[in-house]
Amino acid sequence: MAQELAVDGKPGLPGDFAIWVFIFAELTVFAVLFAAYAITRSEHVALFDASQRALNRVYGLWNTVLLVTSSYFVARATTAIKAGHRLACGHWLTASLLLGAGFIGVKLTEFHQDYTHGITLSGNLFYMFYLCLTFFHFMHVLMGMVILSVVTVKAYAGRYDAANYTGVETGGAYWHMVDLVWIILFALVYVIH
Amino acid sequence: MKYQSQSVAKPYFVAALALFLGQIVFGLIMGLQYVDGTFLFPAIPFNVAHMCHTNLLIVWLLMAFMGAAYYIVPEEAQTELYSPKLALLTFWVFLIAGAATILGYLLIPYSVLAHATGNHLLPTMGRGYLEQPLPIKIGIVLVALSLLFNLTMTLAKGRKTSLNFILVGALWGLALLFLPAFYFPVDTVKASYSWWWVVHGWVEGDWELILGALLGFIFIKMTGVDREVVEKWLYIIIAMTLMTGIIGIGHHYYYIGAPAYWIWLGSVFSALEPIPFLMLVAFAFRMHAQRRREHPNKAAMLWAMGTPIVAFLGAGVWGFMITLAPVQYYAHGTNLTAAHGHLAFFGAYAMVSLAMISYAMPLLRGREANSLSAQRWEMTGFWLMVLSMFTIALTLTGAGIVTIFLQRATDNPLPFMAVQDKERVFFFIREYAGLGFTAGLLAYLRSFFVRGEYDYTNNVKRALA
Fold first, then answer.
1. Which of A188, A149, A177, A189 is nearest to A29 (CA)?
2. A6 or B212: which carries more pLDDT confidence?
3. Which of A33, A159, B368, B420 has the largest count of CB atoms under 10 Å?
4. Which helix (H) or strand (E) holds B203?
5. B276 CA to chain A: closest CA distance, Å?
6. How many CB atoms lie within 10 A of CB B111?
7. Which domains does chain B have, with CATH numbers?
8. Residue of A32, A129, A143 lying closest to B271 (CB–CB)
9. Which structural domains are found in chain A, ordered by start?
10. What's the whole-model pTM score?
């Protein structure tokens, strides 16, 4: 069976169990970072609000759209392979990878503009958190793209089918985690003030 | 033992244990000097004993890692080692260099040794763990290159497994991360940076990958669990190790003159460093629960199961206690750090080395497992060493806390020596625990001299009866 079955016969976690251990650990890391951000912000509200205005929310919004859409494409890829459509699965995954690359492009442009505007790690506490959080997430997008690339190559090579699609679900679960973290990060760092 | 050339691991393991014993002797000397400050003075001053203790630790662990690699890589690659002769030559060069270093520390004043070995040409001596004279450091690089050449060539001609890639890759990392040892500028901030790149890069980064690979190999062999399952766990543990460990280096940068953002980065990421150790514990228990066979080498399994637990406590919990910047402000350089160092080094690296030796030595001596009586000696050694090391860590923790409250976090700080005097009870207990540890090590060593192998027939009969 491609999907793990729990003892009572109901479907278990999609994908490989190990990726869920990893996702749990990853979310713990981000939770600690978000908590540190929130605690620090509560002590420097004026500084955080003023510095937040220097960020480009349009870039942030574009990246949100790109990642959420990309996540949707991964979900379509999973549906496709469950129905036995290998080629469609590969195409959906390729599309999600392209959107991931779009995220990277937008973020690099934003980092470049930040740098030219003097936003650095030593700038102030807000900029330190902003750069650390977004760069750390940026690295996760890259890692997610590496995982999705492997899954895509395997999908085109015919390594998955309607009875064996754990790999697609595993890669998809990680990509959704990257997306989920970005949605929280975008709201927390770019929007809420 | 499946391949004849794996036997080159044997001298490495034997030498590692001999050097381990040497390390413990110097530990006992230092422990006694804490109680009686004039003990062996001026023959072996505290700082010299300290250098010998820490350098022997590094050398014996490297010996054990190299032995483990020479054992594992051919078996995983399903081929003979590229050059067993080169491996033996490397062994003798490394052993002689290590012995010469310790003798140099003991017999020649450090400044004279530094001048005689060309430290004025390229200053590298003086930083903790990296006290070795320049020619010895160059020797270490050559030994590492020889090891890596041999292992990489073996890997290239044989079967490619993820475990082999992780192990050989981590050994490449170990060699590359030693190179900052050659950079010792006058600027103390830069000097601190490069020092931590070696020390932190090894013990809180690269060596954790070696630890994972060694444990992974032992579990594949002893439990019969699918290689794919073990490798999957290793990937996740490695990813978390690197994710937390690389930026976690910031906990060494707090008050050395580095930018202020390291206070945050170091605190957050190093606070998360226990996660991969917790994963190692989960990995070990899952592998044990899913085992498909009962391996007769119970002692090796005990070491393998004990390693992640003690590593998690020593590196994870004790490390976390002192890693946050506001805590470190008061705890820096107290015996709390020594408590963490002892339990972490022992739990993570000494224990995995002993686990590997326990697993491989019977096979290298032509049997799957030692006799039950030999294993009883070994398991006695395990419990004596583990419990003694916990006692050492607890007493040092007590001493560290006393220092913080009487000397650091107080409006009326007492002088350093007055505080040391109040901590004497901890140092007394620590020395007795050190003797207990020595007894444990001797019991472990005794097991190698008990003849015979595991007797399946008799043991099954006894179990049925």
1. A177
2. B212
3. A33
4. none
5. 9
6. 11
7. 1-184 (1.20.210.10)
8. A32
9. 17-191 (1.20.120.80)
10. 0.90
